[in-house]
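Subject: Interface between my chains keeps coming out wrong

I've been trying for a while to get a sensible model of this assembly. When I model each chain on its own everything looks fine, but I need the whole thing in one frame so I can look at the contacts. Pasting all components below, labels as-is. Any help appreciated, I'm running out of ideas.
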Amino acid sequence: MKLIFSRNNDPHRFDEALRNALDALPADNAAMDADFAAFQALQAGAAKKKKRRGGLWLFGALLLIAVTAGLLWPDSSSAPQNTGTGNPQRDIVVPSAPTAASPEVATVAAPAQTKAHTEGGKPTTGAKAVPATGPAQKDQKSVVAGKIPATPVAAPGAPTATTAFSTGTPVLPAGVPVAPASAAAAGKKPALRDSVARKKEKTDTLMIIW
Amino acid sequence: MDQQQLEVILNGLEQGDARCQSAFYRHCHGELMKVALRYHASADEAAASFNKAMLQVFQKIRDYRREGAVMGWVRRIIVNTCLNELRGRLRFSSVDFTDEGLNSFSAGPEVYAGIEARRLLDLVHALPDTTRTVFNLYVMEGYTHEQVAAALKIPKGTSKWHLHQARTQLKERLLQQAIHEAHILQK
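Reply #2:
Try treating it as a single job with all components included. I did that and got this:
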């Protein structure tokens, strides 16, 4: 009797009795069909979601490719241009944006173009950007005098430059070397490179002083 | 369902066969729906948890390495799904409770006489969510207090306190039930 009492006090025995009773609970199959119908709906919903997620993956992959391409070549005009001779030594690479080698071009282009654009109110292209008479010509004269910089003008006979409407940056056809502003204003051939011309000017000045 | 039939069904499940899915669902529903019913007081919530678990079973059937019993694997998924469903709802306040307090529990034979499966499930459903969850994990799933504490992210003492609460409340209700039945019999 004492033994039975002590066993009754054991909490683990109580747990076991509850576990056995709950495990012996008969399965309720009445709701099985309804539950299975709900499960099929859930499965169909999950499959749809998976498909939609697949579409998102494709969109994400395309977006990633586009962004990566944009990072490699943020501006298509700055990408190297091949003149098409097939010889990498001969093919001249002409960056459309101004480089450090020609700082005059970089500082000159924007103000003159902005002025021409605001005065005329029309987009200008090529030789029309600098008319024979008018404020632009005055600017050009001032450049020669060393006062106000002006837009570079291509030499006669050379392919004409076109001006981008939005930025005012001159865009030359591929293969045409950029002429320095001073040389263009003087009407000289733009054969000399800018740095060489500047060296020559310095030498001349030194010689005069000497 | 014998082992050979189960193997055929498992092969079908790996191929995504709809008939095998239906057969396996019905087999598991009979055996394991009561597991979900112990965790949820509402039958609808239990069915929703069971369906979510079965969806996971069908999606991850290739992960089952056929080393242990498949029903044990499915049962574990059902328990984890129920815990995930309940986790947002469970609010535990930290309590320090010792083993001495836990072992001081006692229940007389009259309490055992009142245990009957269908009624007992109702009594388990009447427990608070937190206490019921600890009771289910410790008593029904065989977790230790360390495992319960880790699963529910609570201190070990809190797990012990909730188990003690579950035992005490169930004992009291079983006693009341036994007394009520005795009165009916006397009349």
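Reply #3:
Confirming on my end. Chain B touches chain A through 42 residues (CB under 8 Å).
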